[in-house]
Structure to design on (205 residues):
């Protein structure tokens, strides 16, 4: 039973970590090599696409999505999608997809004369499931070695740890004050009842 308990706890926190890793903003330093638009018909991977285009009439059979092709500072290829999040989840309230695509197109460069940019995004890249991280913003930087400090993530994770710790402390106090005494009384009553049964059977014997 102890192993089941710890397995559930580990699974729960693994899901929480995966959720936070997907949702919280991440930063990549990259060189934009191309931008394009492609017709997408979300299927089994629809969970990883935005639910709706803000202010536009949706075609249930699919929609056009902007993409940004890049080379990361370690020379790996990375492709991002560029979709509005609107008022949905995650709460980035992104409504400037077209403007962001124009900025990305203007910042395209070659390996011979690279223009490095910091790409702020959320989500994962999975070639097998055709999943792409969604760009939230981008800005040019002087070089590929610029240091990015994720202040927002640090603040949010600190607040989350503080809330979890506060709830845990209050739960322990509540358990010690209300639940443990009841369980102790139940155990004492069971022991007393067991003693009476033993005495009864002894007399019968």
């Amino acid at each position: 039973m102890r192993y089941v308990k710890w397995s559930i706890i580990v699974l729960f926190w693994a899901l929480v970590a995966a959720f936070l890793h997907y949702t919280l903003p991440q930063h990549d330093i990259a060189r934009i090599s191309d931008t394009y638009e492609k017709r997408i018909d979300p299927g089994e991977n629809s969970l990883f696409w935005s639910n709706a285009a803000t202010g536009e009439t949706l075609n249930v059979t699919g929609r056009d999505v902007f993409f940004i092709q890049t080379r990361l500072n370690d020379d790996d290829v990375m492709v991002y999608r560029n979709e509005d999040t609107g008022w949905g989840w995650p709460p980035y309230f992104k409504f400037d997809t077209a403007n962001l695509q124009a900025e990305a197109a203007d910042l395209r460069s070659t390996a011979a004369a690279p223009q490095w940019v910091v790409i702020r995004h959320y989500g994962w890249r999975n070639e097998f499931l055709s999943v792409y991280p969604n760009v939230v913003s981008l800005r040019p930087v002087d070089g590929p070695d610029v240091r990015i400090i994720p202040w927002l993530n640090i603040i949010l994770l600190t607040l989350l740890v503080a809330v979890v710790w506060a709830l845990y402390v209050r739960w322990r106090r509540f358990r010690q004050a209300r639940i443990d005494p009841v369980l102790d009384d139940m155990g004492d009553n069971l022991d007393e009842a067991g003693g009476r049964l033993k005495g009864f059977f002894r007399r019968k014997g």
Helices lie at 2-23, 97-106, 151-204. Residues 150-205 form one domain. DSSP finds three helices and five strands in the chain.
